[in-house]
Amino acid sequence: MRHTKKEWEETMNTELIFKYLSELKENNNREWYHQHKAEYKEANAQFETLVQELILAIGKTDGSIIQNVPKDLTFKLVRDTRFSHDKSPYNPAFRAHIGAMGKLPVPVGYYLMIKPGNESFLGGGLFADMFKDATAMVRDYIVQHPDEWDQVIHADTFTKYFTVQGTALKNVPSGYDKEHPQAAYLKFKSWYLEYPVKDQELLDIGTFLPKMVEIFEAMKPFNDYLNRALADFKMPTR
Fold it and tell me: pTM for this structure?
């Protein structure tokens, strides 16, 4: 069920999200985190409510994601600090990936990160360049379907919001034609989109929600293209 702006203003309180995450950023330690579990639960409930509304709204044009449950799509605040100079135990951000297989990186879907300090963004595409098989599948698909790729990334609804981003090699990798019309994109190891969002936009969620949906819907042809490329991809087993 879609909500009106008035209903959202009455039921949705993104200020709780920003208040909690801002305080966690200032007090990034285990003692503070455990002392403020109640505030976390309140803020997380607001985030899951937003994710649920996005599932329902995006699901009108992308039925592959409609079966998702918000709590299965969110990521923990705990950071893996083993290989990082920054030993802060928590990432002060709420994150979710809405895909056909939940929060798994493949199939690709719709990514939301809320992080105070104007660091929030709406994302899509393949972020996981550590999966070499996935990278090879997308490169091969671009080689075989260059015109379709060109149509997707140059559509007016796409260029209004996005440019393709991703980690990339300096040169076209061995085995691929350096003169291919999409050679610039064959250098990529990941292909993703990020639309930056200001804190104030998310604080006025009743007004901003329709734009969020519009932006995510504009990603769909890009996600669909990548998912066709990744149709035979199998997640590595541990």
Answer: 0.92
